[in-house]
Design a protein that fits this description.
The complex is a heterodimer.
Chain A (H helix, E strand, L loop, with lengths): L7 H17 L4 H28 L11 H6 L13 H14 L11 H15 L4 H10 L2 H9 L5 H23 L9 H15 L6 H9 L2 H8 L3 H10 L5 H24 L3 H21 L3 H32 L15 H14 L6 H16 L1 H26 L14 H19 L2 H25 L23 H8 L1
Helix pairs in contact in A: 1-2, 1-5, 2-4, 2-5, 4-5, 4-15, 5-6, 6-8, 6-12, 8-9, 9-12, 9-13, 10-14, 11-15, 13-14, 13-18, 14-15, 14-18, 15-16, 15-17, 15-19, 15-20, 16-18, 16-19, 17-18, 17-19
Chain B lengths: L2 H29 L6 H29 L3 E12 L3 E10 L2 H22 L6 H20 L3 H19 L6 H32 L4 H4 L14 H18 L8 H4 L5 H11 L3 H8 L1 H4 L3 H23 L4 H21 L3 H36 L19 H9 L4 H32 L16 H4 L1
Antiparallel strand pairs in B: 1-2
Classes of the chains: A mainly alpha, B mainly alpha.
C-alpha cells in the first residue's frame, strides 16, 4: 500500500491534540520539552507527508477507508487544497522549530502543552474551508493566547477587546451573509461590512493594529511569533471574504492595507525596542500580502500568495533569531549600539539573511515574490505599486538599522560563551536554507501559488456568475484557458463525487 | 549551436559563475561557522579572479578577432507565469559590458591581492572576503546584465556589500552610523530602479535591454520608447544612478564611506561602485536621449556635482576625503559626458579614472609614513601643497565658499533637516498616540518595553 494514501493531515491534528493532553500532565519542564519536540516533530512529519501526497496526486477517494473524520462527520472537513497545501506543513515546521529552539531558561515560560493545542487548531484552521467550522476554529484559536497572557499575569484587555470584536463581527457577518439569501455573492453591504472589519481587525490593519504590538509586549516571544506568523487574518479574507464580496470591499481592504504597510514600515524604523520593531515589521508585511490579494488580478494574487509563504518562512526565521538573542541578553533596546556580532556571528548572519529575505533581497525567497507583487499591483493600480516599492524600501532600512544597532557599533564584554546552541542552530539554519533554496530555485513554488491563485479567482468568478453579478475580477490572462485538474477541484465538488 | 558560440557561452558563464561560486563557498562556510583558513580563502579569491578575468579576456579577444560586437547568453526564464510574467536571466557581452567586466576583475584582483596582506590578522578577515566576493558578483552581474531585472539583482548586491563594508569596523558607532546612511540612500536608489524595471516591463512587455533600446549595438542603439514614457523611465533610472554615484544632492554618503577598510574604500567608492551610476546611464543612453529635457537635466546634475566636489575636496583635511571628492568631481564630469553624447569618451574616462583612483587610495595609508621618512632624511619639513582656494582669499565670498566646502555643501544637513527629521518626528507623534490609545484600552500603562535599558549589562551583572 502507498503510505501517502494515509490521512496524514488528520493524524497531524490528532497527534498534536494527544501531545497537548499528555504534556499537560507532566510537571518537569525538561521532560515536557523533550515530549513537545517529539509530538510536534511527528505532527510536522505528518503534514509533510500529507503535502507530498497532495502533490503526488494521491486519489482522494482512497482516504475514507482510513479517515477518522469520515467516520465522525461522514464527510471531509479537513483536507489540503491548492491554497493550503504548502502553508500547513510550513506552520507545523515553524511550530516544531520554535519548540525545538526553546532554551532551557525559557522552558518554564513556554507552555508546550498550549503550544501543541494551538498548533492543532492552526493546522485544522488552514485545512478547513467550510465557513462555520472555519469561524469556530478561528474563534477557538484566540483562546490559547488569552490563557498565555493570564498565566503570565499580564494585562489582557487590549487583546480581549480586539479578539472579541473579531469573533463577534465574523459570526454576525457570516450569519448575515447566509440570512441574506442562498447565493452568498449577492450579499448586501450590511452583511459583508462586518466581515470586512473582522478581517481588518484580525490582520492588525490600522487603526485596529494596537493589539499586535500589545500582544508582543506581554506574551512570551515564541508564543507571540507562533500566533501571528501564519497570517490567519489573510486566510480569513481568502476563504470567507474574497469569494463573495463585491469589488468595493476588496478596494477598502486594499486601501487600509496600503496605509498600514507604509505606516508600519515607518514605525518599524523608529522603534526603540526589538519586540515592538518586530511587531511593526510583521504588520507591514501582513498588509503587503493583503494588498496583493485585494488587487484581484491573477498576477498580484500570485505575488501575494508567494509573499505569504515567503513571509511565513523568513519572518519565522527572523523571529527565532531575535528570540535567540533575547534568550541570551534579555529584551533588547534599539536606542543604542550593542555590538553582539562577536559573540554570536551566526545569529547576526541569520538576522540579515531572514530580514533581507522578507524585504525581497535578490537570491532569497522574497525576491521573486516582491517582484511579482509589484508587477501585479502596478498592472491593477500604478499608485499601489509605488506604495509597495516604498514599503519594501522602508522595511529594508528598518532591518539594516536594527542589525547595526544590535550587532555592531560597540564591544560587548562577557566572559561567558554566548554562542548559539545546537538546537537553535538547527532551527535557524533550516529556515535559512529554505530562504536561500527558495530564492535560487523559485519556479516550483511560484507555479503552485499560481495554481492556487487561478483556483481562487475561478471560484470567485463562478459564484458571481451564479449570482449574475458583473465581476471586475480578471481570473485568466488573454487566451489563457485553464481547466483545473480533477484532483484540484474545489473541495465541494470532490465531496459530491465521493458521495 | 556552433562550436565557437558554445565556447563563448561557456566562457560567459565562467565570468559570472566564478564570483558566484566563491560567494557560495565563503558564505556557506561562514554561515555554518566552518570558516576557511586564510591561505584557503586567499587561494579561492585568486582562483576566482584569475578564472573570471581570463574568461572575460578570452571573450574580448574572440569578439575582436571575429568582429562580433554583441554576444547574448540567454539562460532562459528563471521564473515564468505564462502570459503574465517572466524573469529571464540574460547576459550581454558588448563594447560597454566587456571592458567594464574586465575593469572590475582587474581592480578587484589587485585589491584582493592587496587585501590578503592588508587584512592579515584582522578579526574580520573572513567577513571582509565574503562581502568582497558578494560585491564582485554584484559588479559582474550588473555589468553584463541583459535585462533590467538581472541588473537590479546585481545592483542590490553591490549596495548591501558596500553598506556592510563601510560598517566593517564594528567596535565603533561611527562606521555603523555611516553604513546606515549609505544604505538609506541606496534603498531609495534601488526603489527607483525597481520602479523603472516594472515600468519597462509594462512599456515593452519585458525587461530585455535589446527590446527597450531597440536595434543596433552599443553605442549605436536607437530606442523605440519616446516622449513621456521615455521621460518617466529615464527619470527613474537617473534617480537610481544619482544615488549610486553620489551625485548632488546625494553626495554626502561618499566621504562617509571612507570609514571602511582602505581596500574596500579603494575598490568600491574610489573605483567601481561610484561609477556604477555612470555605467547605468551609459547602458540606457539611447532611452535617455529620447527625452531632451532629461538630457539637459542630467548634464546640469553632472556639472553641479563636479563643481560641488571640487569646492568640497579643496578644503578637506584628510587624504581619503580629498580622494573621495576628487573621485566625485570626475564622476560628475563623466555623467555630463554621457548625456552630452560622448559615450566612448565617457567610457575611456571612466576606466582611466577608476584605475588612477584605485592606485591613489591604495597608496594613501603609506603616504604619510613615506613623507615622514623623507623629512627625516632631508632633516626638514616638505613644502606644503597649499589650499587651491587660497589664491581667492581676498574675494568677499571666500569665507562663505570655504565654509560651504568644509560643511560639504550642507547636503547631509539639508536632507536630515528637511526630509528625515520631519518624517521621524511625525512617526514619533504617531507612536505617542498609539501609546495613549493602548494605555486607554488597557486601563493601565501597557508598555513593558519602556523598562528596557538602552545598554546591556554584562552576563556577570545579570547573574
Amino acid at each position: 500500500m502507498n503510505l501517502l494514501r494515509l490521512p496524514w493531515i488528520e493524524l497531524a491534528i490528532v497527534i498534536a491534540c494527544v501531545g497537548s493532553a499528555f504534556i499537560s500532565l507532566l510537571r518537569d519542564p525538561n521532560r515536557a520539552h523533550r515530549w513537545g519536540i517529539l509530538f510536534m516533530g511527528v505532527s510536522f512529519l505528518c503534514t509533510f507527508l500529507g503535502w507530498l501526497g497532495f502533490y503526488e496526486g494521491v486519489p482522494p477517494e482512497v482516504a475514507p477507508a482510513f479517515s477518522i473524520q469520515h467516520r465522525l462527520f461522514g464527510r471531509e472537513i479537513f483536507a489540503l487544497d491548492e491554497l493550503s497545501a504548502p502553508l500547513v506543513p510550513t506552520i507545523a515546521l515553524i511550530h516544531f522549530l520554535t519548540t525545538m529552539a526553546t532554551a532551557r531558561t525559557h522552558m518554564r515560560r513556554f507552555s508546550f502543552s498550549w503550544s501543541l493545542s494551538a498548533a492543532a487548531l492552526r493546522i485544522s484552521t488552514f485545512c478547513c474551508s467550510e465557513p462555520w467550522i472555519l469561524i469556530g476554529l478561528l474563534s477557538a484559536s484566540t483562546i490559547p493566547p488569552y490563557v498565555e497572557l493570564v498565566n503570565r499575569g499580564r494585562p489582557t484587555r487590549v487583546y480581549v477587546l480586539h479578539m472579541a470584536l473579531f469573533v463577534v463581527l465574523l459570526v454576525a457577518g457570516w450569519g448575515a451573509v447566509e440570512l441574506s439569501g442562498h447565493v452568498p455573492s449577492s450579499a448586501p453591504w450590511w452583511a459583508v461590512a462586518p466581515l470586512l472589519v473582522a478581517v481588518l481587525v484580525r490582520s492588525g490593519t490600522v487603526p485596529a493594529h494596537c493589539w499586535v504590538t500589545d500582544w508582543f509586549e506581554h506574551a512570551s516571544f515564541g508564543i507571540a511569533i507562533l500566533f501571528v506568523i501564519p497570517l490567519s487574518g489573510v486566510y480569513t479574507a481568502v476563504r470567507l471574504v474574497l469569494p463573495i464580496c463585491p469589488p468595493w470591499v476588496l478596494e477598502s481592504i486594499g486601501l487600509f492595507s496600503m496605509v498600514t504597510a507604509v505606516y508600519a514600515a515607518g514605525m518599524a524604523i523608529i522603534q526603540l525596542e526589538t519586540r515592538r520593531f518586530f511587531a511593526h515589521f510583521f504588520l507591514s508585511h501582513a498588509s503587503l500580502v493583503l494588498i496583493g490579494l485585494e488587487m484581484h488580478n491573477e498576477l498580484s494574487l500570485t505575488g501575494s500568495l508567494c509573499l505569504w509563504f515567503s513571509v511565513m518562512i523568513s519572518l519565522g526565521g527572523f523571529g527565532l533569531t531575535l528570540r535567540a538573542l533575547e534568550t541570551r541578553f534579555g529584551r533588547l533596546s534599539l536606542a543604542d549600539y550593542h555590538g553582539l556580532y562577536e559573540h554570536c556571528p551566526m545569529l547576526g548572519v541569520c538576522f540579515l539573511l531572514t530580514g533581507l529575505a522578507s524585504v525581497g533581497f535578490p537570491g532569497t525567497l522574497g525576491f521573486v515574490s516582491t517582484e511579482i507583487l509589484v508587477d501585479g499591483t502596478i498592472e491593477a493600480y500604478r499608485f499601489v505599486g509605488v506604495v509597495v516599492v516604498a514599503t519594501a524600501a522602508l522595511n529594508g532600512i528598518a532591518v539594516i538599522r536594527a542589525y547595526f544597532l544590535l550587532f555592531t557599533g560597540s564591544r560587548h564584554v562577557s566572559t561567558v560563551s554566548l554562542g548559539i546552541g545546537l538546537r537553535e542552530r538547527v532551527a535557524v539554519l533550516t529556515l535559512s536554507a529554505l530562504v536561500l533554496g527558495g530564492g535560487f530555485y523559485p519556479q516550483p513554488g511560484v507555479a503552485t501559488r499560481q495554481r492556487a491563485a487561478e483556483q481562487i479567482l475561478l471560484d470567485r468568478a463562478e459564484r458571481h456568475e451564479e449570482a449574475g453579478v458583473v465581476s471586475r475580477t480578471k481570473p485568466l490572462g488573454p487566451g489563457h484557458d485553464v481547466e483545473p485538474e480533477p484532483r484540484r477541484q474545489p473541495r465541494a465538488e470532490t465531496s459530491t463525487a465521493r458521495e | 549551436m556552433s562550436e565557437q558560440s558554445y565556447w563563448l557561452s561557456f566562457l560567459g558563464i565562467v565570468v559570472v559563475a566564478s564570483p558566484f561560486v566563491a560567494t557560495i563557498v565563503l558564505g556557506v562556510s561562514s554561515l555554518l561557522e566552518r570558516k576557511l583558513s586564510k591561505p584557503a580563502t586567499t587561494r579561492l579569491v585568486y582562483t576566482m579572479i584569475l578564472s573570471g578575468l581570463l574568461a572575460s579576456i578570452a571573450i574580448l579577444v574572440s569578439m575582436l578577432m571575429s568582429g562580433t560586437r554583441h554576444i547574448a547568453i540567454d539562460l532562459g526564464n528563471w521564473v515564468a507565469i505564462p502570459h503574465h510574467y517572466h524573469f529571464s536571466v540574460k547576459f550581454v557581452f558588448d563594447r560597454l559590458s566587456v571592458p567594464f567586466a574586465i575593469l572590475s576583475y582587474v581592480l578587484s584582483g589587485t585589491i584582493g591581492a592587496f587585501a590578503t596582506k592588508y587584512m592579515h590578522r584582522e578579526r574580520g578577515f573572513n567577513r571582509f572576503f565574503v562581502l568582497y566576493t558578494v560585491f564582485l558578483l554584484g559588479m559582474e552581474v550588473t555589468a553584463l546584465a541583459g535585462t533590467i531585472e538581472t541588473l537590479f539583482a546585481g545592483w542590490e548586491l553591490v549596495g548591501l556589500s558596500s553598506a556592510l563594508l563601510v560598517a566593517f569596523f564594528q567596535d565603533r558607532p561611527a562606521p555603523a552610523r555611516n553604513g546606515l546612511w549609505i544604505w538609506v540612500v541606496y534603498r531609495f536608489s534601488d526603489a527607483a530602479l525597481l520602479l523603472a524595471a516594472v515600468a519597462m516591463h509594462h512599456l515593452t512587455g519585458e525587461g530585455d535591454f535589446d527590446v527597450l533600446l531597440g536595434s543596433g549595438t552599443w553605442p549605436y542603439e536607437h530606442s523605440l520608447v519616446s516622449g513621456w514614457d521615455a521621460f518617466v523611465v529615464g527619470s527613474l533610472l537617473t534617480l537610481a544612478a544619482m544615488g549610486k554615484s553620489a551625485l548632488v544632492p546625494f553626495s554626502g554618503w561618499l566621504p562617509r564611506a571612507m570609514e571602511g577598510p582602505t581596500p574596500s574604500s579603494a575598490v568600491f567608492y574610489g573605483a567601481l561602485s561610484v561609477h556604477l551610476g555612470a555605467f547605468l546611464l551609459l547602458r540606457v543612453g539611447p532611452l535617455l536621449e529620447r527625452s531632451w529635457p532629461l538630457c539637459v537635466l542630467v548634464v546640469i546634475i553632472g556639472l553641479t556635482t563636479a563643481l560641488f566636489a571640487y569646492l568640497a575636496g579643496s578644503v578637506q583635511t584628510d587624504i581619503k576625503s580629498v580622494l573621495a571628492f576628487a573621485s566625485l568631481s570626475q564622476v560628475g564630469i563623466i555623467v555630463a559626458e554621457v548625456r552630452a553624447g560622448f559615450r566612448y569618451i565617457a567610457m575611456v574616462h571612466l576606466i582611466g579614472h577608476a584605475c588612477l583612483r584605485t592606485l591613489q587610495f591604495v597608496r594613501a595609508p603609506s603616504l604619510l609614513q613615506d613623507y615622514r621618512t623623507i623629512e627625516n632624511a632631508i632633516g626638514n619639513y616638505l613644502p606644503k601643497a597649499g589650499n587651491p582656494l587660497a589664491s581667492h582669499a581676498s574675494n568677499p565670498n571666500y569665507a562663505w565658499v570655504y565654509r560651504f566646502g568644509m560643511e560639504r555643501g550642507y547636503l547631509d544637513a539639508i536632507l536630515l533637516e528637511f526630509v528625515v527629521s520631519p518624517v521621524v518626528r511625525g512617526l514619533r507623534r504617531c507612536d505617542a498616540l498609539e501609546r495613549w490609545w493602548t494605555d486607554f484600552l488597557a486601563g493601565e500603562a501597557s508598555r513593558e518595553s519602556d523598562q528596557v535599558k538602552p545598554h546591556l549589562e554584562t552576563i556577570e551583572e545579570l547573574s
